[in-house]
Amino acid sequence: MIAFPSGAQVWLATGHTDMRKGFDGLALLVQETLRRNPHNGHLFVFRGRRGGLIKCLWHDGQGLCLFTKRLERGRFVWPSTLPREDADRSVTDHARAAWIFARRN
Question: Which of 50, 53, 56, 79 has its C-alpha lying 20 to 30 A from 10's C-alpha?
């Protein structure tokens, strides 16, 4: 288990993201779509179209980290798709964020 700083926010990109994107592509999405700095220590989470894959981008103070989780069956629970101008969703409660990552339907 990786411990994130207590002040870090978890940002969920609603809708689906092209899961072929890596560090640079996801960091660009954070900057252009969410209008946030990917190097600020917050956690940015993206979900694939089918819902069984998420990628998390996080800067640990030394560099960007990219974490991936794929479910063998089921889907990650995710907020419903919103218009792109409302796409940034912050989950400040770490317990709720952990529930989203572990929960599947």
Answer: 50
